[in-house]
Amino acid sequence: MIRDRDFRRLLILSAVVGLVVSLAAWAFLTIVPFIQDFIYMDLPGVVGFSATPWWWPLPVLAIAGVLTALAILKLPGTGGGVPADGLSAGVTEPSLLPGIILAALATLGFGLVLGPSSPVIALGMGLGLLLARRVAKDASVEAQGIISASGGFAALAMVFSNPIIAAIVVFEAAGVGGVMAPLLVLPGLVAAGIGSLVYIGMGHVTGLSTNAFALPSVDLPPLEDLAIPEVLWAVPIAIICAGLGILVVALGKRMDRLVNRNLLVWLPIVGVAVAILAILFSSLTGESNLAVLFSGSRALTPLMAQADTLGLGVVAWLLLFKSTAWMLSMGSFKGGPVFPAIFIGVVAGMLASYLPGMTLSTAIPITVAATVVSVLRLPLSASVLALLVAGSAGLDAIPLIIIGMVVAYIVAEILRARFLEVETVDEAIEGSPS
Q: What is the pLDDT of residue 207?
């Protein structure tokens, strides 16, 4: 099929899809931080405050709940998938995009603890499918699916500023392999490569960029030779991170069932609860309440800059409040789980670095790989993301990343089978007519 003339046409169409989708994704990823900065930095001054009041997140996140609920209830598609269910790369019908995008803008722009990965993938796949149906009307269902997936590649490349990472994540999330792999990877990389060019070009032309959601390196110091204690610590650390990830997912799923009873009532309540968590963290630690809000993508670099000055108590409180806010957001609002999982992994690594024989350079690669894989169930993607986040320490930390990822994946699957899948079967039995 790759030598076939039609496949070459498919690659050309993938390039066109990459261009269109990348522009749309760039617009979305530029609007979100603009909304965030306006609401939390500019709007208080507009309405007469000299500084942002401590209670400001309370009405903001309550309004976010109302807007998200309306997008879910009034528009097709229920605002996209449930973040607690993981990262989905299924084909998105174009008609569902307005509801998905509006729900995501209300969620991300107003400060809930979710990232852009899922809505951006949906945006790319929906636009890719729309273009495939308009431009190549005689294309088979399989060809339309490939073009749609290529749109997902291109859109996610704008998030990570890296077409290779986008290809790995979408490819693994789609669950495609075997002889079909090249048929998806080649058009996807073409579209994602175009996406990276658009990312660079639009930044030069407009002076704006999507760096608010770019995958940052935390710039860890290079590793010395690995010692036995560091390898031994990797196993219990990964087990704890897997337990934390499954706990967030499990409680998120329960939240999803709760809020769906009455979205217009429960989503504002959840928004207020997230705001209270942010305010409590600030009152207990003296740090900004914004540390608990948002996906965490923009906070990683400032967080690591303070790694030597933040006390153990501040880091522990941040892990507790951010994880709880993430769980509430995962089961209620619309967005992606990738960036919060990375942020929680980094904070958990900062906490683990206090263990005897551990440093930030050995702890963070383990915790990021373990946390991401326990939530996303994508082992290769989790390993690559941990490698990139670790920066200059990444290559030397590969053994620790693999240990953390494998142990966490196995433990998470055991816990998932014990608590989540059994629960799902019980619900199916209860809901059946018989």
A: 55
CA distance 139 to 182: 18
Bridge partners for 115 per DSSP: 336
What is residue 38's DSSP assignment? I
Among the ranges given (3-7, 171-175, 216-220, 300-304), the one the predictor scored with the smallest mean pLDDT: 216-220
Nearest residue to 246 via CA among 64, 70, 424, 377: 377
Distances in Å between the Cα of 14 and the Cα atoms of 132, 159, 359 are: 9, 18, 44
Question: In the chain, how many H helices and how many E strands?
Answer: 17, 0
pTM exceeding 0.85: no
Residue whose pair of structure tokens reads 């929906």 in the numeric block: 126
Q: Residue 381: name the closest of 336, 321, 325 by CA.
A: 336
* Residue pair 150/191 in contact by the 8 Å Cβ criterion: yes
- The closest of 383, 289, 396 to 342, measured between CA atoms, is 383
Examine the pLDDT at 240 and tell me if it is beyond 90: yes
Look-up: residue for tokens 């669950």? 175
Neighbours of 107 (CB within 10 A): 34
pLDDT for 379 equals 85
Measure CA 405 to chain center.
Answer: 18
The three-class DSSP label of residue 336 is strand
Closest to 112 in 3D by CA, of 346, 337, 347, 404: 337
> Are 323 and 313 within 8 A, CB to CB?
no
The number of residues in the chain equals 434
289, 282 Cβ separation under 8 angstroms? yes
**Tens of pLDDT along 117-175?**
889 989 999 998 898 888 877 777 777 888 888 888 888 888 877 677 777 777 777 66
Q: CA end-to-end span of the chain, whole Å?
A: 47
Distance (Å, whole) CA 261 – CA 256: 9
In whole angstroms, give the CA distance from residue 375 to residue 371: 6
Cα separations (Å) of 128 from 97, 364, 381? 12, 36, 23
Strand, coil or helix: 115 = strand
Residue carrying the six token digits 């089961």: 331
In Å, how far are 86, 145, 291, 344 from 297, measured between CA atoms? 18, 30, 11, 11
Closest CA to 156 of 71, 87, 245: 87
- With a CB cutoff of 8 Å and minimum separation 6, the contacts of 289 are 54, 57, 278, 279, 281, 282
Q: Is-contact 376 340, C-beta < 8 A?
A: no
Q: In Å, how far are 244, 302, 311 from 306, measured between CA atoms?
A: 24, 7, 10
- Compute the half-sphere exposure of residue 332: CA atoms within 13 Å on the CB side of its CA: 36
